[in-house]
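Follow-up to my earlier ticket, as requested here are the two runs.
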Amino acid sequence: MRTARITYRVCNGKSPIRQQPERNRHHGGMSSMKERMLAGEPYIAEGPEIMADLDRAARLSERFNTSSADDPQGRLAALRDLLGTLGEGTWIRPPLYCDYGRHIHIGPRSFVNFNAVFLDVAPITIGADVQIGPNVQLLTATHPVEPEARRAKWEAAQPITIGDNVWLGGGVIVLAGVTIGENTVVGAGAVVTRDLPPNVVAVGNPARPIRSVENAP
């Protein structure tokens, strides 16, 4: 496999990332694609480790998404098996779609409404008392802008962090590498391409703060 330099122009508007595949210091060879993925380096989604993790998440997601409303404990058990962390009193309404599941960490007393899409190639960290509306997408994955590298299936990811007591309205999209500060409200349909500070109301595409939460009507 060739190891050409790859340029990533991350969707959150931060500086382009230029990286080359590096040699594994311990083994003298190329790092596994899973190691590269977890390190936030360019990788290709192939190999037995990645495929096994994707299959695991697919099975557990199906178990959660098809669970009976008459069996809330079974539904909760499926969710705990799928996610990396599920805080006490947190609830997610199915269906939920994710890549790996175990890279999703949610604090206590949070709520996620129907049809969430959490692409957790990199960690997704959601704080306490967070409200997430229906059809929200948290997308840690990103791809090269160079057509040749993209055709060769290289990709990368950057983490997403949602602070305590944030409210994401229905249909909000949060892109790779974004942090949203505590108490912030993001209006329905907004596309969050850059970090948002704490204690603001933000709307639009791209999302921009329009007032503080103290001044909201």
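Run two:
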Amino acid sequence: KSVTVDDVTPVLQELVSKAVAEIPVPKDGKDFDPATLKQAVELAVSEAVAAIPAPQDGKSVTVDDVQPMIQEQSTTSSR
């Protein structure tokens, strides 16, 4: 026997209703604490910035450093 839309609709409705019922209700219309969000963003940004290597005096990128990347890109682009 084939299953019809009418057969699965009640099951799907029950599953969706249960899932929606598990979503926490916001308190006083407040979904998040702006101070907590600000702190999380500041931490993420500071960690990302700290991961950037500091420049070194007298050391720069040379043609020899960049050439393999350019060759790889030109080979990949021409495929």
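The only thing I checked on run two: The mean pLDDT is 88. Let me know what else you need.
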